[in-house]
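note to self — DONT lose this again. spent like an hour looking for the file last time. sequence + predicted structure for the chain T wanted, 138 res
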Amino acid sequence: MDWQLRNGTEADVPVIEAVALREQLDSRQARAEEFVIAERNGELVGFGRLIRHKDCWEIACMYVARDLRRLGLGSDIVEELIGRINEDLPVYAVTSLPEFFVTLGFAPVKKMPASIRAKLDYCRATFDDEVIVMSRES
């Protein structure tokens, strides 16, 4: 499509935090280097975050502008994030959109590391949407 992916910068963090607040996404302790940014015509139209936990990876804080949803941008962002993984550890997502993550090879799970359980508990206590945990082998 007509978007470009790039690494996050410090200038992106305030924008990410504003969008995350509006869209009910967890952007706590956001660090620019964890993000992939999608731009179209110089405008931020999507992003995703890869967090390294002690015993796993987490795809987090996924956003795609409404007019670009279902066009492959979210998949491009997730695949770019997964391409950054340099250790053979499981990859998790705490999500309100399981149907999206299923298309990328994720499956719902009941067992998870403590870091992902803490994220699940935080999201359930903080946000309106129902969330589940999904995993994909890296």
